[in-house]
Design brief:
The structure is a homodimer of 303-residue chains. Chain A is of the alpha/beta class. The first copy, chain A, contains 10 helices and 14 strands. The longest helix of chain A has 15 residues, at 229-243. The first copy, chain A, starts with 5 loop residues before the first strand and ends in a 10-residue tail after the last helix.
Chain lengths: 303, 303
């Protein structure tokens, strides 16, 4: 083991989280801030970091690893993408050092599929963490969200992945489309029956371009109450994402994310007859810990 | 022939068009106004109509037929939907009379498919007109737009149809999604090569939730110039709509709409190996003329 403690940081588009990991890689203290990279002006990343974590970085052996959009063009320092297939060793060998030996950013991944490039930043770290926590070397994982990622892992390395703009499509339809006039102002309580109805329809095979319109017509003819429509639409969009996946009946899926969202995906996968297990945001800390252990000692600042 | 002249009106959400049709059903004068139903307050439809077409309605034998969203809840007078299958005779027998014998609104259609209702208002009239103009009794027709309609006709009657929110999805992605940051502010010139590339990718089978993201990554890696991205995205969305259709190689499709849009659909259908012919907005006048000829004489105001 090269690293005995770690400041693990998840710095995304809209939020900033950090944890101090002890010698067993356990988070002993966590902090979160509404300081996503979109709120930080160019040149202001160092002071923002200092104000959030400066006290922790005073410790003599402090090492900080960060993942997420902080490594993008709009972030602190651009960390070039690693090409798939890639494991956490490749990622550890391609860190972008903000302060040599002390603060580094984990690179994102790029893969090529069907003649098209695809990219991720931050999800690779969550995947490596989930593999560690679950003791897996081969898995199909999904990280639901604004841009969901489906990730195939073999022998501990990410072979390929694909992005689905599921959360963003839901928000666009919810807020800006003609459906927004039919839907209630607030999402209200989750309606699992309406959600399942949406998933089932989407899995039957028609395009979201068509099924989305049923949100309007079912309401027009009083076949679904207005309060059930947001859950129904959520089911349509998530169901469309699942329909697009190649899943054998014996495929086992790992879902990484918040409790509410991973629960929806687990329910939707069950309607496709696919078992799944869920894991939360602790995957990020475990991933950063695993990457840190692989950093070559010559790169670390000795004290 | 019951009706010898007709004021034909297409009153939609965002525009109002009218034509005076002579004894052969030909438009001898046309007018158009930026007075879609969204601009007209409840109770103001009669004066709006009077200001646009009052002089024409002074003629002693004047009969006016209107189609489109003017017959919706938000329009002048709600015209209840006719149930499919329906031909222009059923539609003519279910007109909603604003002024008995003088001014009537054509009802929309409702059909049930896969346990879901679907609706149209205005497109039924264009379909009936296209059938008349092309001398067809059996056809598959598409009316591209904000909400595209695919319509199956047998023996002159609309058997079923399905709505695809294609134009609206394009606008949502174009204006409100993360892709809007990548796309140029103006659509610029149409790029047929980029359009075909988008259609071809969509026809290969992955969901728009996934393919849409390639608009971003192709730009990120300089594989497509920014100026080509709007045409590429248009191809992705229209290609997704076409992929969702059951089309045999010998299917013949009629495309009804504006020259620019029907040209895109004809090109996209050619990439699926499906021949298509195009027809313009004259279909609306021909449809209203055909419906007018079927009105029972007892319903017409004699002069």
């Amino acid at each position: 083991m090269n690293v005995r403690t770690l400041l693990a940081v998840d710095w995304g588009t809209s939020s900033l989280r950090g944890a101090w990991l002890d010698a067993r890689g356990q988070a002993v203290e966590e902090r979160s801030f509404a300081r996503g990279i979109l709120t930080v002006a160019p040149g202001e990343f160092a002071p923002a970091f200092e104000s959030c974590f400066g006290d922790w970085m005073q410790r003599p052996d402090a090492l900080c690893l960060m993942s997420g959009m902080v490594g993008s063009k709009q972030g602190w320092l651009e960390a070039p993408y690693c090409t798939c297939p890639a494991g956490f060793e490749e990622v550890a060998a391609n860190l972008a050092w903000v302060k040599p030996g002390r603060v580094a950013i984990v690179p994102g991944l790029v893969c090529e599929h069907d003649g098209l490039p695809d990219v991720m930043r931050g999800e690779e770290t969550q995947v490596f963490g989930a593999l560690q926590l679950l003791g897996l070397q081969d898995a199909l994982l999904v990280l639901p969200g604004t841009h969901s990622k489906w990730v195939r892992v073999q022998a501990g390395r990410i072979q390929s992945f694909a992005t689905f703009m599921t959360g963003e499509f839901f928000a666009l339809l919810r807020q800006h489309s003609i459906l927004s006039r039919t839907l209630p102002a607030s999402d209200g309580a989750f309606d699992s029956e309406a959600f399942d109805q949406g998933v089932t329809l989407a899995l039957r095979g028609n395009s979201l371009l068509h099924t989305a319109f049923s949100t309007r017509t079912l309401s027009l003819f009083d076949r679904l109450p207005a309060a059930a429509l947001p859950s129904y639409l959520s089911g349509l969009v998530i169901g469309e994402e699942l329909r697009a996946q190649t899943l054998q009946a014996n495929t086992h899926v790992v879902i990484i994310g918040s409790a509410a969202l991973t629960q929806r995906y687990q329910n939707a996968l069950a309607l496709r007859g696919v078992p799944a297990q869920r894991i939360g945001s602790e995957a990020t800390w475990a991933g950063l810990w695993a990457i840190a252990q692989t950093i070559h000692p010559s790169l670390l600042k000795t004290v």
